[in-house]
Amino acid sequence: MSPNITSRILPKRKPLHRFALCVLIVFSILYLCYTKSNSQFPALYKISASEDPQCSRQALAIGEKFMWYAPHSGFSNQLSEFKNAILMAVILNRTLVVPPILDHHAVALGSCPKFRVLDPKEIRILVWDHVIELIRSGRYISIAEIVDISSIVSSSFVRVIDLRDFVSIWCGISLDMACLEDTKLSSSIFRSLKQCGSLLSGLNGSIGNCLYAVNEDCRTTVWTYHEDGHEDGMLDSFQPDQQLKQKKKISYVRRRKDVFKTLGLGSEVESASLLAFGSLFSAPYKGSQLYVDMLQDQKLEALMEKIKFLPFVPEIMTAGKEFAKATIKAPFLCAQLRLLDGQFKNHQKATFDGLRQKLESLRQKGPLPIHVFVMTDLPRDNWSETYLGDLISDAHNYKVYFFREDDDLFRRAAIKLVAAGHGQRFASNLDNTSGRKYCSTQKLPNLLLYVEQTVCSCASLGFVGTPGSTIAENIELMRKFASSSGQC
pTM for this structure? Predict the structure, then answer.
């Protein structure tokens, strides 16, 4: 549009009008920023004061005590949280609500070492929102359908219930309705989901004997368990340094709290039907556990040994071993190369150097070619410009194997896994939910990551993992277990 045409369409504004227009624009921007900052609480959960969620009579009359938490980040972190949750539920004598596996980084916690994490209430809301999305899209898969927990649940002191069963019983909602492809759910279902999510997440805080929302997180608390409780209330050895306090303007003080004394028998929390944690992720940092630091006393020693390694379910293990025996057919090395995600994208050279050194050592010993199984997040189209491209082109010395997501091996394993229904075997005594199937439109789960790890556990020439990767740590555990049990 030419300046002349513009001047004919838009009359000249007086300076005052221009000032008013600027003010309007500024307020519009501020409003958009405010809206965006509050987008972490979807409209699904914004309810009026008259709609405050309350426990149903059925929930209060159940008698059984439950515990749930907010998983997050990648699968390996979610598995680590799950193990901590099992431990917490046993200590507190509660039935653990087993969550689904969330999409990779669909929900992120933040940085505990930097004291910059999501509030427990916020992360519970985000997890619930993603759970509903998984169900509605037919992609819900319980972590107990991937990880074999039969050995620990057979113990009378470990009680679990699938989240779908729990919501059906405790909130009176059939989550099958959320699977419908039509996103315009009926108003009654929409309202029920909204209220149930608000209730389970503690959006409005704790509610009498119904719900206790645990709002402690890794910035303020290290959960411990000691029979005499001698550490309860003590300052933890890891605290934010003065530079961080000044830079972030924070005043957090980390204290060690006995989980049983604070939330267990005899505490004010004991009567709550549901105990809702935020994140239960914990990892070593500068000599201190970030969030969960349990003493291995005699009561917990056997359980902690059992949950140290939880194998994948038989359908996944069988698929991985089948690939190793029927496709590779020879001793092989496994390389787990995490190259794109988070901090790992800055250390690609070091990751490849570790693999190169291992292969050079094997090449000197012979025989050739060396069989190499590769699992990586680097797309196959990008391999040619990396060390992986060099390996593939050097057919005399190396034979490289890898999976494609459309391999029929995954489809056959997924069909068997869905039919087995592992996650729904461990129903509570509250209702006859054992064996219930959900969502006729359920999609076959993507088993790529789990089968890859199983293949790596059987690599007789060794394993090269990405330093700092929790996936690599889990593979090392699998290899140790496979070696001691002779499963490969």
Answer: 0.84
